[in-house]
Amino acid sequence: MGVGKAFINSVIIASGATVLTMLVGIPCAYGISRYRFLRYILYLLLLTRVFPPMVIIIPYFLIFKELHLLDTHIGVIISQVTFTLPFAVWLMWSFFYALPTEIDDAALVDGCNRFQALYKVVLPLSLPSLVAISIYTFLGSWNNFFFPLILTRMDTKTLPVVAAGCISGRGIMWGQINAIAVLMLLPVIFFVFMVEKGMLKGLTTGAIK
User: How far is CA 17 from CA 4, 37, 107, 161, 177, in A?
Assistant: First the structure.
């Protein structure tokens, strides 16, 4: 596979995993932070991080094969989300939990329902933190090697998998590996610089009262 195609695959998979993680994680973390009886979900999510990827890759492979999701973007995205989502939910929960519930109550009194209170009031206040979490999610998916290696064939190989293919019994193609490494760094650097301000605010939120 060409490096250009692998680059496009990496962008699609990393972006898709980030968007899906945030879409699912935001309402999940908000609900857990506001309803105490949902706290057990946090520990269930944490349990998914206990198992190393090589333990669950065979069930993943068999399930995706039956669903015809092998060597597809959506299949790799789903596999990435299963590991990025617990981390994101735990971080977002801590940020939402730190916000006073009086903010939600004021929005409800003004006529908002719970979802409107989330998207119109809570999210703008948590935006810097969410930006920081989205960066970590994107980087984690962008650099992931194991799942794309097992779940892709030819059409959806990512840059890390293509870079690994430059190492064989006949030698190591250092030129190609270096070129791919630089290519992998460029969008990450661009992404971080674009949202640097929001990331720094997110990382320091709550540090100074």
Answer: 20, 28, 31, 17, 25
Do residues 89 and 119 make contact, with C-beta atoms less than 8 angstroms apart? no
- Judged on CB neighbours under 10 Å (0-12, 13-18, 19+), 122 is buried
With vertex at residue 200, the alpha carbon angle to CA 199 and CA 203, rounded to the nearest 5 degrees, is: 85
CATH number at residue 192: 1.10.3720.10
Q: How many domains are there within the chain?
A: 1
pLDDT in tens, 56-83: 888 889 999 999 999 999 999 999 998 8
Tokens of 6: 């692998």
Q: How far is CA 64 from the centre of its chain?
A: 20
209 domain residue, yes or no: no
Q: Would you say 55 and 118 are in contact if contact means Cβ atoms under 8 Å apart? A: no
What is the pTM assigned to this prediction? 0.85
